């Protein structure tokens, strides 16, 4: 089989340099410099990503149980606080609305402290109308993020809890951002 010919000026330029071509124009040198910068930036991004994944997996292996890590509750509280401050300082709460995330942070914090959260309280934590919050809860339930549990003392009321699988994922996120 013959070698395929690629009609690409950048490939031709690189091929010429690999072949130790002596004559390179200023434009070619500038373009090579740009390509080199792009390649360096991509390598840096990949190294950071790999380092972050390695750090998260190593940390997670060392700290498997989120229930016994007080730093997790602190992370949840700080994250909630940053969300509130962002809205207060920057304004435009509609633009920065993240109802599911607000509910998740609130549910996780209360769950760590063994405080049940009713559907009504989860809706309040979302900072959106109840109908919108209920839609989000339904979607999160479909996706295996939350589950509803009937109140044993009052069958009309339901509590919402994050699944253990999702709590573990949330904990991994917390560890990866430390």
Write the topology of this structure.
Elements: H1 9-18, H2 26-62, H3 70-90, H4 99-112, H5 119-125, H6 130-142, E1 146-150, E2 158-162, H7 164-176
Total domain count: 2
Envelope shape: elongated
CATH architecture of the largest domain: Orthogonal Bundle
Biggest pleated sheet: 2 strands, antiparallel
Output the radius of gyration: 26 Å
Give structural notes.
A two-stranded antiparallel ribbon has the order 1-2. It has two domains: 9-60; 67-176, Winged helix-like DNA-binding domain superfamily/Winged helix DNA-binding domain (Arc Repressor Mutant, subunit A, Orthogonal Bundle). The chain contains seven helices and two strands, in the order ααααααββα. The longest helix is centred in the N-terminal third of the chain and has 37 residues, at 26-62. A hairpin with a 7-residue loop joins β1 and β2 (158-162). By secondary structure, it is mainly α. α3 packs antiparallel against α4 (99-112) and α4 crosses α5 (119-125).
What characteristics describe this protein?
mainly alpha, 7 helices, Arc Repressor Mutant, subunit A, 65% helix, elongated, 178 residues
Structure summary:
With 178 residues, this protein is mostly helical. It contains 7 helices and 2 strands, in the order ααααααββα.
